[in-house]
Description:
Two copies of one chain form a homodimer. Chain A has helices at 14-34, 37-42, 51-71, 77-80, 87-105, 127-151, and strands spanning 116-119, 123-126. With 163 residues, chain A is mainly alpha-helical.
Amino acid sequence: MSTTISIERPILTKDELLVAWQGHRKLTRRVIEIFPEKDLFNFSIGGMRPFAELCREIIAVAAGSMQQIVTGNIRPLEECMPEVQEKADILESWDQTTDIINTSWSQIQPERFREEISLFGAYNMSVIGIIQYAIDNEIHHRGQGYVYLRALGIEPPFFWERF
Amino acid sequence: MSTTISIERPILTKDELLVAWQGHRKLTRRVIEIFPEKDLFNFSIGGMRPFAELCREIIAVAAGSMQQIVTGNIRPLEECMPEVQEKADILESWDQTTDIINTSWSQIQPERFREEISLFGAYNMSVIGIIQYAIDNEIHHRGQGYVYLRALGIEPPFFWERF
């Protein structure tokens, strides 16, 4: 008697998803670096938030969600937003978030990716859904940062600079 | 004698990736619909392309890459761009692309996702890398469309409207 087990080869592994995310974060870091200090905090179009505020949200979503997934401690999104006064503060918080993601990643077992949690005590989402949201939201806001830079006459980095 | 096989549960299945992509495409379609006809083709910020041109690229990347992956026929990106004169043309091409993606998806076996191809005869990428690029590039340009809408005094749809 023989048994056939059908296994779908993963189209994307956990490690590959981390590389994709951190690649996007390297590009966003370049966008932060290229912004003139004052425009980072003051420039906006159509009543939108300045890029520094978008970065605070990106950092809060990334670091806050990873910490909640690993520890189970729920904090509201607003409390996860870093206090920043200047570009150097954003970059420092950005790099701390890089470490938080990498450290958390090894503690999240693959079988947890379908687990639902109440993110920030407000949004019921699966772990994979949260990670997809964090990445997609960063790409979305970074794209807006590209328009701000173009409006300021500054050429943004190439979209494929993920290294 | 017993054999232990260790299988990492997929963090994301092929079907789930399709749902995520088409969800993003539904949101982008809403953004196209909400654009005033003339601004879709003429409005821009900082020398960037109007949103209609960004949509032509998004359509070409999605439809062109799916068709190449399935048929093996290589066409340059430029040849995959739809001819569009008005918003209705973009929406029609958008919906045709929805069908092309769905039809192609069932023809791409999971084991092909790591296969490398020369996309548009110009870019050596894996199938999963191409799909990630298509989704990420759409989110990036749609985020730019959000800024155009805000600059025009128009409220864009919520980022989570993927249904």
